[in-house]
Structures are given as C-alpha cells and as structure tokens.
Write a structure and sequence with these properties.
alpha/beta; Rossmann fold; L-2-Hydroxyisocaproate Dehydrogenase, Chain A, domain 2; 2 domains; 6-stranded parallel beta sheet; 3-stranded antiparallel beta sheet; 22% strand; globular
Length: 290
Amino acid sequence: MTDSRQLHCLGRVGVHGAGNVGSALLMEMAANGIGRHVEVASRRPGTVEAALLDVASAYPARAANFEKVEQLKGVYDVIVLTSGIQPSRETAKQEMLKINLDIAMGVADSFIPAKNSAVVIVGSPVDELSQEFLHARHDLLPRQVVGFGGELDRARLRTELLRRGIPDNECTVVGEHGSRTVPVYDSEEDYENVARGVRSSLDRIKSATGQARNLASGVQICHLLSALDNKSDVQCVSQYDERHGIFLTWPYRVGPGAALERVPVSLGPAADKELGALVEARLESARGRI
C-alpha cells in the first residue's frame, strides 16, 4: 500500500541517539513524514544502523530520507538530542546532570542551528540540562532551546484523572518534568494521590519490566516536531522563565521557527504551593553551585 501523505516543510533534521527514545522517535518521524533529510548519529553507531533498518522495514518509501552519520555537522532546521544516561536510584541528580551535559556538549561542538530553529533537549534532568546547555552555547537564543518531557506528564495526569472520574478539562503540568512535576487541574480533588500517580509513572514502568521503556517519548517528541514544523500547537515544554531566571516546564504555544508564546495558567492553592516550593529549591540549588 502506498503512503500518500506528504512530507512536511522541515528540511534538514539532526537526531543524536538511537536507543530506546531515539529509535521510537525515528519510527514516528517516518510514519508522519517529518523531515526531508534526517541525519542520525550516536555514541553507539550500531544502534543507528539497527534503528534505520527497523524504519525501512515499516516505511520503505521513506527510508531514503534517513542517513546514518558519524556526527551532526553543519546547519539544521531542528536538532533533537536524545542521547544520555537515564534516571536511576544509583545515580545522583547532579552526577546525572554533569554526565548528560558532557554528552550534549560533545555533540553540540559540531552542529550549527539555523537562525529560526530549535534544539530539543531530551536528557535528564531536562529542565536543568536545558538551562546548562543554553548557558554553554552562547550562540543560541533562549527560545531556541526547548526541553522535552512535559507532554508525557500531562498525558499521565489525564490518565490519573480519568481513572478517578475527575474532570480533566484543560488540565496541564508546570514546574519540572518527572518526579517533581506539578499537576494543575480545576478541582484539585485528591491532589496528593493524583500527583503521586503522575510522578511515579516512570518508576512503575521500570518496576513492571525491570528496565526503562520510553516508547511514548517517540510519539510525543514527534508531536513537538510537527508543531515546530508547520502548525501551531500548545505543548508543555521546558523554556527559560525570565521571572525566575531558570528553565521551567510550562504550556507554550509552539509554532514554526521555534516561536514560543507562554500560555497563562490559573493555579489552584495546592499547585501554587508546590510550584513555589519547587522554584525556591531550584534557586537555592543554583546559588549553591555559584
């Protein structure tokens, strides 16, 4: 059967990392026609070859748009950095941040984002990693560095609310991605248990399988690329917050050319308290590293 869907307008796309998240992303990009030419590199080249063979097994007509490269070089419309170590109880947060920043900066030495492009950061802890990456890459504007993860939390929040029969109208998340995400929903009914369910989702996946699974990340990153490509959409992403001087996850209207517009959010008492504590902890941590 011929796939009649047209390629979108993104030209050259760079993806670094072809592990769990990267390979899932490549499959979704092929399925949705994202990128006229997609270059893929990894610290483990064999994973790229395997991922592209997988893509060709599902979307042969699109396989020619994907190329294995040793490193990302030159100018790209969008760059997605998926490589890095995953959160674990054995690795302290600051150690994980240092390792993943070193990996990201090693990749970043050779690529040049276009003037109106975005660098999508996927590694953990994504809010702080995005902040440190921007600090290290002086040639980038704050809007060009986009941290991914909030959409996973928002989907997990909807799941927790639907399971409890709580209205999920305009629910969202703010603050950080992952274990410190701050759920926002009108009623704030059963807030502590809902928040616990959202924050523990990844741990529960690991407990059930004995390993991390991030297949949903491929789907959600592809949605983000689609918004950056040719349509405007509200996405929970990590962006530089001028009020606090740090990266925070928040709903933004995302459009072509890395155009981001912060969406106003009305916080209930519980969410407001949690966000305030999180911001203070982040600022205190930043002061401690000065």
